[in-house]
Structure formats: structure tokens, C-alpha cells
Amino acid sequence: MFEHSHYDTLQDYLASGCTLELTDEELDYYNALYALVGIDRKYGKDNAIAFLMHPPFNVERSRARRMYAEALNLFYLNDTVENDAYRAILFDNLRKAALAVLQNATTSKDMEVYGNLLTQAWKVKMLDKPDPVKPKEIKEKPIIHFDLDSLSVGLPSANRNILAKQIDGLDLPEREKTRLKRDANVVDVDIEEMLDDQEEKTKDIG
After folding, report:
1. How does DSSP assign 144-190, residue by residue?
2. Could you tell me if 45 and 36 are in contact, meaning their C-beta atoms sit under 8 angstroms apart?
3. DSSP one-letter code for 51
4. Do residues 83 and 60 make contact, with C-beta atoms less than 8 angstroms apart?
5. Which one-letter DSSP state was computed for residue 107?
């Protein structure tokens, strides 16, 4: 029985929200893997593997071990990283051990053991580390507004005459001063002049 693995099919089955239709053999395979997880949690790995090696399955040990690995990855993983499966198993075991200690605690030492087990469980599950920062959605990103009018952001308007005098005082060619005044809205934009400037720069580059 179970001569062939149906692991990939079962991954698709779970990813679909269990809406895909399974054959009888695939369904039996699914139930066997699910049972392995429960046996492993309560009785350990060796007993889980032995479960498959006896009737009604009678699976060979090597095949049973592979199915055990498939069961862990299929039902414990939330992505394709195998280590997450082992973290989930350790977390469950440590949490159950901590609960057992708490229920039978009679001394402060017992409570200390309980606390240590919980701490280990948190570390295994990486609950002691901050969650990774998720990238902001487009709608959450701040909207940046650019405006040449200082009044729109609550700042006093610049004195254009003073600004023009400051530009005139610069040791620059007249054409460059005119461009600065135009950029600062000190003088009106002259489209023809801007095109001439652009043509002149293109010639300089060439």
C-alpha cells in the first residue's frame, strides 16, 4: 500500500481550500499523513513511523520515514521552509510541557520551570523578535505635494525684488541670471527663450 507518493497533489488540495476532488487512494494517503501528525504529537516519531509499518498499511520502513517527513511538512508548514515545521512541533511540545508543570506545580521551583519552558517556547516560535516590517500599501504611502507658492505651506511669500537683486549680484553670465530669475518666478517664463537655452545646451554637449 502507498507505493507512490501523493504529496504534491495534497499540497495543491490544501492550497485550493480543499476544493479539489481526490481519488480514493489520494484520500487514504491524506488521512494516513494526518494521522501521523497526531501520533507524533502524542507518542513521538518512532511510534508514528511504526503505525504505517503495521496493518492495514504494511509500509516498508524507508517509505514510512518519507511519509513521516511529508506529514510534517504538509500540516506544519506555512511556507516552503522546512525548519518552520520543526519550530511548530517544538513550540507545541514545549507549550504542553509548560501546561503540565503548571497544573501540577506545588513549589516556587515548579513555577520557575514553567516560566523557563514558556520562554523556550517563545524563542522557538520567534515571539521574542519583532515582526518583520511589511511594505506599506500604495494607499498608505504619504502623499508629497510640491508647490512653488510658499503661502500654500504657511510660509511668508518671498520678496521678489530682493531676490532679483541678490541674483543680479552673482558673478554669473546674464543668460544664467535670467534662468535663475525664471526658476524663482522673479520674471515671467519666456517659452522661446527656454527653447533657445535648451538648444544652446544641446550644442555644448555635442
Report:
1. P---S-GGGGTPPPP-HHHHHHHHHTSSS-HHHHHHHHHHTTSS---
2. no
3. H
4. no
5. S
The answer for residues whose C-beta is within 8 angstroms of residue 2's C-beta and 6 or more apart is 28, 29, 32, 52, 57, 59, 63, 67
How far is residue 42 CA from its own chain's centroid? Answer: 32
Query: What are the boundaries of each domain within the chain?
Result: 1-76, 79-128, 150-205
Q: Which three cell numbers stand for residue 10?
A: 495534497
State the Cα–Cα distance between residues 175 and 197, nearest whole angstrom.
8
Question: Residue 151 and residue 54: Cα distance in Å, rounded?
Answer: 84
Buried b / exposed e along 154-186 (16+ C-beta atoms within 10 A): eeeeeeeeeebeebeeeeeeeeebbbbbbeeeb
CA angle 60, 65, 67 (to 5 degrees): 95
Task: Report the chain (206 residues): mean pLDDT per 10 consecutive residues.
Answer: 88 85 89 87 87 89 92 68 62 80 86 84 73 60 55 56 74 77 65 59 53
Alpha-carbon gap, residue 36 to 49, rounded angstroms: 8
